[in-house]
Specification:
Number of strands: 2
Order of helices and strands: HEHHEHHH
Distance between the termini: 55 Å
CATH superfamily: Ferritin, core subunit, four-helix bundle
Number of domains: 1
CATH topology: Ferritin
Largest sheet: 2 strands, parallel
Radius of gyration: 18 Å
Length: about 190
């Protein structure tokens, strides 16, 4: 059995095996986050309710497909760097630094309020990973920047549902998924409160 801390036997030309391992470790965290995001999006797709059901239900599936494609690209980049990507549920849960998505069956706007928080975390961490790879490996950096384009677009789709005509986000200022879901839900009931 190969241990995750061992140096790879090879990496891509012009990188040291140490740099390959460093980049692969950064990518492994992104792999975990994007696998988690794909599962969270699918969970929302199945559990969304209310008058905005169909709009959100149908908006989510293309995001799931795109995020799954990102997962595959990252896993293949890790393998290209000479490291074995780890995509098992147990490893994801063991290595993640965030809590599991906490909203069950709920209204579309509540889910979108919580999903806003999820995307903030994913995009922020993806930007940090892109910055960390900028000087190490342009190919990996380019991959992450490309993902950011889509992730930020999907985040905008979510926020468009939470935004009032004045540009304010109904869940702004709330901390955590539950509070964001509650704030978005309350604002949907009384749009004047946003």
């Amino acid at each position: 059995m190969v241990r995750r801390t061992e140096l790879p036997k090879y990496t891509v030309p012009s990188l040291s095996v140490e740099d390959g391992r460093t980049i692969a470790a950064i990518l492994q965290q992104r792999l975990n986050a994007l696998n988690d995001l794909a599962l969270t999006l699918k969970h929302i797709h199945w559990n969304v309710t209310g008058p905005h059901f169909i709009a959100v239900h149908e908006m989510i599936d293309p995001q799931v497909d795109a995020v799954r494609a990102m997962v595959d690209q990252i896993a293949e980049r890790i393998a290209t760097l000479g490291v074995a990507p780890v995509g098992t549920p147990g490893a994801l849960v063991q290595d993640r630094s965030w809590d599991d998505y906490s909203i069950g069956r709920a209204g579309a706007i509540e889910h979108l309020g919580a999903l806003d928080e999820v995307y903030i975390g994913v995009v922020t961490d993806h930007r940090e990973a892109a910055a960390a790879t900028e000087d190490l490996d342009t190919v990996t950096n380019d991959l992450l920047v490309g993902h950011l384009h889509e992730l930020e677009l999907f985040h905008w789709f979510v926020r468009a549902h939470l935004e009032n005509a004045g540009g304010e986000i109904s869940s702004a200022g709330a901390e955590g998924e539950q509070a964001s879901a509650e704030a978005a839900g309350a604002a949907a009931q009384d749009p004047e409160t946003v």
